[in-house]
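chain below, 365 aa
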Amino acid sequence: MRDSSPTARCPAHAPADHPAIPSAKTGVLLANLGTPDNHDYWSMRRYLNEFLSDRRVIDYAPWKWQPLLQLVILSKRPFTSGAAYKSIWNVEKDESPLMTITRDQTAAIADSLHATFGDQVMVDFCMRYGNPSTISKVREMVQAGCTRILFFPLYPQYAGATSATANDQFFRALMAETWQPAARTVPAYFEHPEYIEALAQSVETAYAAATDKPEMLVVSYHGMPQRYLMQGDPYHCQCQKTTRLLRERLGWDESSITTTFQSVFGPEEWLKPYTVKEVARLAREDGKKNIAVIAPAFSADCIETLEEINEEIRESFEEAGGEAFTYIPCLNDNPAHISALCSVIRENLKGWIVRPEHRCQVVSI
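prediction:
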């Protein structure tokens, strides 16, 4: 998403052959996990190879992990993952829902920020894995005249495998620039009041629309190995706090809401309870026949929500005797969510950018 600022020009007092320089501005670069370009075998293989080769995601020694990945996992998984993506693919736009939603979020945020700051700001998005790449978007922003870039990983809760690896890639992109822009990264916003409010409103809307009020709200977060928590990753604690703040805002007691973790991968123990098992236990042992599931760790609906939660986890609940399953969509481009994200951005732009009407006026003497 390019800006509409004046074209580049030669600096004042510079020789005629000096390269043209665009007017200075501040870039806001949103970042999400990523998406394959298509759901065919080779598109999926390229995407999964990049994703699963990231040492922030899988930290096993390469000599042990790469042969298994290249010879076994990437021979089979592109077929199953491709089928999952195909089931949720945006056929009209020929892209994954994550791409569609992230683009819509970016457009809404750009409109809001431009209304406040005008052409001082340029807003765009990138993906950690796949396209548009972080490196390509940083390059575009520098070429457009961004002397400062605010990098915003769209993960409410910090984790090494999400926020940190997105930041890593941003820093790598900066390393390739001759004239590096000043840079800031946005920290996790898991307890931001507007984010919590947007979550609460989405729950209230879903409950109001339900024929019968769900007996339990399952707050499902993406999982990670238990070992990462022991190594100091704050993700688990930030997830628990998000759930607590959501419960307090809703005014519910602890028996009405529970925290779980999904998307387990590999043989080692991950954060528990596992969502897919817990929803079955709720139906089979606790007699909960009507539940709702929300996924606050995802800023946009994606394969883990549209396919895993709304298909696999729903099936686990129903097979255990559950009757009514409500999936509460991610906040996506909901106006309350866009407002919350813009508030986080404005807070992190302080000292860098001011409203046009607050600029100092130059007076001739």
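The longest helix spans residues 62-88. The radius of gyration is 22 Å.
thats it, cya
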